[in-house]
Structures
1.
Amino acid sequence: MTTDTHELILLRHAEARAPRGKQDDFDRVLSARGEADAERLGTWLRQQEWIFDLVYCSPAARTRSTLASVLPFHALDARLLPDLYLADAGTLQRIANGIPAVGRALLLAHNPGLEQFANALCGWSAPRALPTCGLLRLRREADGTARLIESWQP
């Protein structure tokens, strides 16, 4: 980290449909509930008037669809990182450590890694669940830890 603090937003993709037949997990699309949740989150984010300096997204279909619904104006400039697909907490930590010092960055990825990463980063003794389309707004500290500022869930 090159600054004392910045915000890191962790977003779990919206609910996806169960795989159909031999459909690959990577290609799963959002369910009707997932689409509705993503639209609600998008409305909430617009009300917050947040500016995202960087957006990192898993290239899986369900994360890209979530991004398109939640932050449509970032769908084209998001950095699709293959390492975010089903990333574990250690991989997410490595990616987060490589994010340039900016005001606000978003990581859109998958569980269980995203939830485990948030719990480790914040040092929560009682693990917190991150539901589909759940968002955590964290402030990164100079010592590498983070604290929860706010959360949103459907």
Note: The mean pLDDT is 92.
2.
Amino acid sequence: MRIATLTIASLFTLSTAHLAMTGDSVSIEPGLWEGSTTMTSPMFPQPHVQTQQGCVKESKISPETLGYSENSECSISETNVSGDTLSWSMQCNTPGGAMNGQGSFESKGDSDSGNITMNMNVAGQSVSMEMVWKGRRIGSC
């Protein structure tokens, strides 16, 4: 369970890394961003809330720029862009087991929001985790 929790927790952290545009994407204003993430799961006694800042250098966001690459434990499928919203399905193979999920990311240029819902099997039981975030541009890098 700890490995699955760490994998989900790292998803937002990776979203503030140096970005590269590939595949389906939505526009975002480059600069210094602050984001707040709330993770919930039956595995947690209470929601886990985290706030971070990071420099976004590119003007497009795609599932790949959110931290999924060839070297990642996760792969992306079924990407779709509708207006300012990017959605995708994903599969992750971690040492703790396989996880499947869906994500969405909505950009308003200088603010964003999104969520990822993951489902996994832990010790023979189906467990879900949800991560919801909101972000806003707070200045230049």
Note: Confidence is low (pLDDT under 50) at residues 1-22.
3.
Amino acid sequence: MIIVLQSVNTVIPITKTHVKIKFMKCTQPITIAASENEPTLCCPPLLAGRLESANIAQLATIFRVLGEPARLQILSLISSQPSQEVRACELVETLGLAQPTVSHHLKVLYEAGLLAKERRGTLIYYRILPDKLTMLRDALS
């Protein structure tokens, strides 16, 4: 019997016979073979995950959007405001970014469904949509 695990040769006794274990880095499931013709999985496959396949692509997109530090900072700044909303011009100086860059980040967050926007006269106010953040929190818990 040969058991493939990680990267050193070791022999361990099993009842009256010895098993040679060869350790090597595995990128696929570990297999245990009674002979080289009969491989079997050492662990049964998972039957189901917590995430539904329909939501996985949407979650991946949102997490990709949140991978930009400036966008995380924008969400943090918005959530820390007493009114829970900000204008784009308020973020420019605080973030130290150019106005077009801030507008781009706000647009990406809006298109990902993390922000809502409301036009009041010539100004646009942005606020966080708590349902999306709850969905992300639930996916990670």
Note: Confidence is low (pLDDT under 50) at residues 1-14.
4.
Amino acid sequence: MNVLGIGVDIVEVARFRGLGPDSKAIAKFLSEKEVQDVFRRREPAPTLAGRFAAKEAIIKAVRSGRPGSKIFFKDIEVRGDDRGAPQALISCDLAGNYQILLSISHGQEQAVAFAMMVQKDDAYERRPDQDNESDLLRGA
């Protein structure tokens, strides 16, 4: 698996406090599905900040991995997989055999995200039944 690009972003959660699902700011960076997911939470601000940081990190990873690529907030949808791990779905046309690996973390004050654009390795594809322990045992 070759690393094509990386990106990281950190944001203040306070920037997102008080924003509602109908806010113009929210409409600029979240899909309708993401809005529904985020605003079903009791305290949406940390999750909003995490999604924003994730999209910034993904854009940085893609633009560093594929210089000249046109990718914007609304081209990216961040959601959890079956186990809650964040996944990025990219809707713009980025040619190539790649995937985006994503990590998001937040507290009450800050949110941070790290994204890595990697070339897929046909010999190793992550299967849903694998867990971190099996990765460590294999040296992955």
Note: Residues 45-65 form the longest helix (21 residues).
